[in-house]
Amino acid sequence: MDYERATEAIRTASHIGVGTCYCRHKMEHVHKACGNPLDNCMTFNSTACSLIKHGIARQVDVEEGMNLLQESLGHNLVQFGENVREQVAFICNCCGCCCEALLAAKRFALLSPIATTKLPARGGSRKL
Length: 128
Prior knowledge:
Elements: H1 3-12, E1 16-20, H2 22-29, E2 39-44, H3 45-53, E3 58-59, H4 62-74, E4 78-81, E5 90-94, H5 100-107
Helix pairs in contact: 1-4
């Protein structure tokens, strides 16, 4: 996810929740975790509201969300979110050594499982 899309998700969210990075937390249990921050996976809007309500995430404001994004960039973490046009529900701040998605991409790189493209204008078509 590019910086512009990540900051837009943070700035426009009705609710922002921050929780523990699942991948780095899991790697801690097998003594393979890196030193990157654990408390930086963000959820937005109704997803955040539900996770905050159930004590899985803590609520933060836009300023803290932006600070967490900057901190993640300072650690060379990759912003990873779901592939949607509107209303991003989460942004993970991933490292190449713990993140399951990035590890899978590296593992299967020869098969080219990931293709990126610019989103077409509304109503346009996209050829794959």
